[in-house]
Input
Amino acid sequence: QKEVEQNSGPLSVPEGAIASLNCTYSDRVSQSFFWYRQYSGKSPELIMSIYSNGDKEDGRFTAQLNKASQYVSLLIRDSQPSDSATYLCAVLKYSSASKIIFGSGTRLSIRP
Amino acid sequence: NAGVMQNPRHLVRRRGQEARLRCSPMKGHSHVYWYRQLPEEGLKFMVYLQKENIIDESGMPKERFSAEFPKEGPSILRIQQVVRGDSAAYFCASSMDRSGSAGELFFGEGSRLTVL
Output
């Protein structure tokens, strides 16, 4: 079982709709969760971080965390063509040797 | 530009040669991570370093790969005797510290290694 799992997609969403991206993780010790966006040929950039159960909103983005079910999701409201990218879920667990593990990413395509 | 600086951006090597990739973290950041990304795949963790210390190298291949982050100068990822399978984009990322903002990584533009 992969430590961080995402559906690779592609996920196709019409412009203006809500895009929903999901991620599950295997290690209950995981404590911090992140969503990164990566445009083709570019480096990843952090768009959301979430540390406690519930929802966290930032503009058109909402991150949701459910530690009991070990999943984290990202909602993008009013999707724009510029949101078309690969979205990477990342997990950090604090330990003597912390490392940040990424999922394989979900490709999102917003169709006009 | 105070961002994460990686060089070279593109590197071409023949099989058996050595590749050296450099990374200067953001100002004020003392944690450096190296990741490898193959086309259409996610980021694979390689190594996590602090100044003069390797904290976690569990993602590094046992042979030919090494990394360092000296007291002065950039972090270096070194690949000896490269093979075609080493062709990939190598991303460096830095963060501020372990608590609070740890995990909020700032990435460089990547070094794209091509092995002929």
Observations:
- The two ends of chain A are 36 Å apart (CA to CA).
- The mean pLDDT of chain A is 91.
- The CA atoms of residues 17 and 78 of chain A lie 5 Å apart.
